[in-house]
Amino acid sequence: GAKTVHEKWNINAAILSGDGMMIQSYALLQKNANNNFALLFERFNSTAWEVCVGQQMDMDFEKRTSVSKEEYIEMIRLKTAVLLGCALELGAIQANASKKDQEHIRKFGEYVGISFQLRDDYLDTFGKKEEVGKRIGGDILADKKTFLYLHALETGTSSDLELLRHFHGNHPNDQEKIASITSIFESTQADLEILKKSEDYYQKALQELNNISIPEEQKIELRALAAW
User: pLDDT at residue 124 above 80?
Assistant: First the structure.
């Protein structure tokens, strides 16, 4: 419930704060104990760029009439999942892990991130406000082309599609819009499909974790993170 930086101060203060924190992060990378700065710096910058690309894709999707589920998965991979993958990968580099293990733990993070984002999209429509911590139906009101929405477009009846088109960009009544589109998500089983897809990526993450060549007891916390 706290105000964001741009709300508490202004947009320029928020942009400048972000720039300053980026510089501080570079300073921290320089202080690594194993003298891996060049590699850490390259991976950090590469991931930061991917996040920017993912954010641009998300904005582009708002204007496009046609978006595939595959494109959506790629967008959330770039916008969200690569950040978790990179954080784990940098730790593996610092631990002098093999190239294979660096790749496995990065993929583990990415798959967990995709699974998380799909589950987050589900909870935005089907969660409880007191548990999720935000208004339920926000994505629907914002006309977000989430996995739920795209699946409904792919599998809905002609009347479903007509209703989706009617409500897109149109807000005659917020609660009516949320209730109507949620009903379509349920009738097309988009709610079940998104949970299945989230579970698929969760299992992929666990497989990558299994492939890392460290003792099983050292994977306990990572398993707990993925499950949470």
Answer: yes
